[in-house]
Amino acid sequence: MPTRNGSATKKAKTEAVEVAAHAEKVAILDAGAQYGKVIDRRVRELNVECDLLPLDVEPEKLAPYKAIIISGGPQSVYGTDAPKYDDGIFETGKPIFGICYGMQLLNHHFGGKVEKKAKREDGQFPIEVKTECALFEGVPSRTEVLLTHGDSVSAVPNGFAEVAHSGDLIVGIADASRHLYGVQFHPEVDLSTDGKQMMKNFLFGVCGFSGSYTVVNREHMAIAEITQIVGPVKKVLVLVSGGVDSSVCAALLHKALGRERVIALHVDHGFMRLDESKKVCKALEAIGVDLHNLDATSDFAQAFTEINGRQEGPLDEQVSPEIKRKIIGDTFMRVTQKMCTDLGIHADDVYLAQGTLRPDLIESASKLVSGNAECIKTHHNDTQLVRVLRDAGRIIEPLKDYHKDEVRALGTELGLSEDLVWRQPFPGPGLAIRILCTDKPYAPAGREQVQAELEALTKELGHVDDFAVSLLPVQTVGVQGDGRSYAHLVAISCRKAAAKGGLALSPAQWAQLAEFAKAIPGRVHSVNRVCLLFGDAVSGLVDEITPTTLKQHVVHKLQLADDVVTETMKKHKLMRKLAQVPVVLLPVPFGIAGAHSIAIRTFITNDFMTGTPAIPGRQVPVEAVVEIVERLTSGEVAGLSRIAYDLTPKPPGTTEYE
Asked: Full-prediction pTM beyond 0.70?
């Protein structure tokens, strides 16, 4: 069982209750879940201030807080590796909301039972809730939620009631008299459709918060943090990609420190979108940023870096996603240091600012966010070298507690143009991580069995006459079961002539196809991404690849394809409706020697921690998709074979393919 550090004193308990009467902050106790840090986003979205604290926090340190939320976590409450906690946190008299592991801990502490059940739940499931419970006011009696658990509450403590069920499993408990609530699911993520209402009910209905923590309030706090860290003299160097995050970061620094103390550097690493660097320079100069533009295309192409004591490079010959990201991240640092030298600035006198967001750190398992989260992938702005600089106190990340929608709101408040604020997110490594590099087909032992499972599932679900399924010879990055997956990509293609290779599917058929695509990773766990392949049906295993690295002609091919997709999205007014639309180059020729294929990932999300694809006929016009496919297969972009449309939610597929 969890180790307890002792009990809170009566004095600490009394002081906590007295202070809580005036407090307007929530303490989020972190038990280490991958999605746990999205809780603070949901709380702030409702204009309530919160702090992330370790689960083993001393109870007296909770005095400034009005309520407590306990996050999810990967351990079992009865396990020897269960996180430590002080039982005094349950004796403060404050309202408590336990989520996933937090509910199990709440139940366990007060004398209930938690057991590992034969039935495990991972994914979006319908649950039944008791709407008379304060937590579920305004929530339908049947609602969809994200469940990811193996342990379950089997008996509730005295004073608690069962308030939500998933079949015969208890997924909600409450002791209304003591303001104690717990849910087994994750109300903080988008896949819990009424989760925001539940959070609102707890914060305002149960706890009585006023909701006064606004964007303007937070802007002032961010500026105060910048000036406190940097001091009155030193300058800040900020790497500006031209995306939303780095642009807002530069604008915030500009407001906090003034033009003379902010050195903005735009690095053209050769992996920008078509003419992006020119557009970036024009947009940033328009808001008064003193921008230094550096063309470092050749520096990045030929870059090396040391990884685990071994020199890796050059970049334009690498096929490993992790090596590509680390070379790019470390090269950014070296270019920054050289820029300081060229400008006559001593590195010790300059801080490096980055537009790092909380999802970046969560997915990189940075200790700044959580020491327990497993690494999903290395973000370019959170490499080991960056962590060393951060530990030395030389990096400032003003947006590290922000999510994407919050950054847009802050950008608007800072006076940035609508075009800049609503620019599609673009990763720092650029198109380098949207080109799947390889020198051989991905053909692990057992793939024939995986293909057989796919065909059996297609038959079982009644799709064998309509669709063919094929295992492609590439891998993509995903997240499954709170951990990183690097697994198979599956292509579905249409068998019937009436479908015209997928171009004549009706909205109802697209919806059916999306459900089929969603079912595949749930049943065939070695698959983490599924797409529709336009054109003639492709059956069985695909073994042929086009050897691909980050050579300039390969990058240019993707730049042109990406521009076609972007132009079409703008034409159909989809840029604000879709959170992001990565366009990915696949090294699969489908019978055309030397050709590549394109995957289009339309993505709908509020927080980028979870999300869904835009289904043609529902969230995106079918004619927009048809127009993109026809343009890309007409010869407008040379060297393309097939076009695919990604139908994968997150999880299991991450936003990007690498």
From this structure: yes
